[in-house]
Sequence to fold (300 residues):
Amino acid sequence: MFLSSPDELFPQPKPKRNNYFLRAKKAINKQWKAPENRPPISHKYYPSEFSYLCPRERVFQHFDPRPRATDKPSEAMRSEAGKAMHKYVQDTFLGPLGLLKGYWKLSQDCYEDRNPFYGYMPDEPCRFEEEKISNHKLLDDFPAYTNGKIDGKIGKERYDWLLDGMKGDPPEDGDIDYIWDFKFTSDRNYSSIKEAADLKDYYLLQQEVYQEMYQCPMSIFMFVNFSTWEYKFFEYESEGKLFQESLKTIREIEEGMALTVLPDTFACSDSDCSRAKSCPFKEDCFCGKSLAEILDENTT
Ligand code: SF4
Fold:
């Protein structure tokens, strides 16, 4: 008999499975999936979800809430990690440099209304409130609202000053503001975006929603490579075409909820596509029955 590796002669012990970890993971998943523990599905729309909305799924969820594929601890952890990275850059870089205004707030080392750093807050120094737009009305014929908050705003003068190497003191503010958006991204994605034309529609759509909410026609994307911390900027000025198109989807959803009908638009090409496989409504969605019939069957 021939041995293909020394391991066959001296077998290595198999690493023990970490049962504590596996049990904890199972318990967290179970807890997370319990209907009473799941985060409620809001009737509001968030700018980040516009590009991913499935009208049918949203209507199903309205009448018959079920755990979504994204209702997982790992997704929540990813989102929390993203928020922490945003905050780090805001609090330790852009704020103290005197760049962001509006939403940006210095939450650390801030006491007795005094701010030991000189974060740029043109209106009131050291405010603890967040600038958040809620209940921004999307449609006139249906009660569709969105809410959300941006990563920050920057005056045109200060953006030019930044690009020019921040020579001298920060300039005074003019009338033009840009919406500031961070994108922390992998090395591969970072390298694939070389110019503004490479920006994907889902980035642009989210910005168009914010531009509409804040009545601010221009955005700056700051892409940060989370492996190397390199960064680059892209400007985006839109006419809101993507946003206008997405309003059709919102209208379909609102109409479906109001009239108890399933929208005709499918996000999936068929029941075998990857999105359908993780959709909790796959069976109902492709069964060919009306929403009223499906709801009737599911409750009896
Ligand atoms: S299966 Fe696809 S089209 Fe149907 S509800 Fe789910 S995501 Fe939407």
User: Anything to note?
Assistant: The pocket of iron/sulfur cluster is lined by residues 54, 56-57, 60, 266-268, 275-276, 279, 281-282, 285 (CB under 6 Å). The two ends are 65 Å apart (CA to CA).
